[in-house]
Amino acid sequence: MDLTVVAYVIYLLVSVGLTVWVARTLSRNGRIFLGDVLHGNEKLADAVNHLLVVGFYLVNLGFVALYLNQDGGVADARGVFEAVSTKLGVVLLVLGALHLANVFVLNKIRRRGLMEREQVPPVAPQGWVAPTVKA
Questions:
Q1: Does the CA dihedral 82-83-84-90 come out positive or negative?
Q2: Could you tell me the pTM of the whole model?
Q3: pLDDT digits (tens, 9 = 90+) for 38-74
Q4: Per 3-state DSSP, what percentage of the chain is helix, strand, and coil (rounded to 5)?
């Protein structure tokens, strides 16, 4: 078997495995965060969480597939490790960047929601008091 094909198989197995693991972790822990961002609306939080996970899979698996191409052939075992480690490093950086971008956007939404909640007075006004005129 050609060593380039071995590098491809290792790269695909590890990349897809990492993508699934990160997506599940983000889905499980992100649901709690989304519940807070969306003011406790659990159905909406579940729907948004599912859509984010689907988008995460599409972007990451698409990137993994596009990045599969190897410019040169792999000649020996050292070349297999170098090719796989380079490709996995880039995939991990992309996974991390997408994760940070996701958290940044959701945190912005969360902060905006907190600010909106703080602008509403905690108690409705009870009446009106006329200003006093000082002589």
A1: positive
A2: 0.70
A3: 778 889 889 988 998 898 899 889 988 988 886 777 8
A4: 75, 0, 25
